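TA notes, week 10

Several of you asked for a full example with nothing omitted. So below is the full record: structure tokens for the whole chain, then the designed sequence directly under it. When grading your own attempts, check the secondary structure regions first.
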């Protein structure tokens, strides 16, 4: 299974925005969900597929679809106790996507959820924390301006 995971990871670069890459990951994700997962644990491969789909959708301005892909990815990661750093990055990305879509309340919720995952003992996450706090402040300001109008 590890060989298959590595093969899927390296099939297309994560920045490949081609339709071919999108269709590959979309088809593989559907196959994993509908046929293979009943026999073997495909969570790691599903996470890779959903993450790649999300990035491709984001690059191609399909922001709503990207949010859905990243949220599905997070659900699998949480259900299987996967790395919190990966979840943190996806929540930050979802917040940015919601900002782009003008969904500032959802963006704020995503950033606040991401903040809960930053370990207080880690200096390496100080930059990430500052970036998320900046986005939280931006969204609060926008929401206040919208409510005052």
């Amino acid at each position: 299974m590890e060989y298959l995971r590595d093969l899927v990871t390296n099939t297309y670069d994560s920045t490949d925005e081609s339709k071919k890459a999108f269709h590959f990951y979309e088809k593989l994700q559907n196959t994993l969900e509908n046929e293979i997962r009943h026999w073997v644990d495909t969570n790691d491969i599903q996470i890779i597929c959903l993450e790649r789909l999300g990035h491709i959708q984001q690059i191609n301005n399909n922001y709503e679809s990207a949010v859905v892909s990243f949220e599905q990815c997070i659900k699998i990661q949480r259900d299987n106790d996967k790395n919190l750093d990966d979840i943190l990055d996806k929540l930050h990305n979802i917040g940015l996507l919601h900002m782009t879509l003008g969904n500032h309340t959802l963006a704020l919720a995503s950033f606040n959820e991401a903040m809960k995952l930053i370990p207080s003992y880690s200096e390496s996450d100080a930059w990430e924390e500052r970036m998320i706090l900046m986005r939280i402040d931006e969204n609060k300001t926008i929401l206040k301006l919208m409510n005052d109008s």
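Residues 74 and 87 are 6 Å apart (CA to CA). Use that as a sanity check on your answer.
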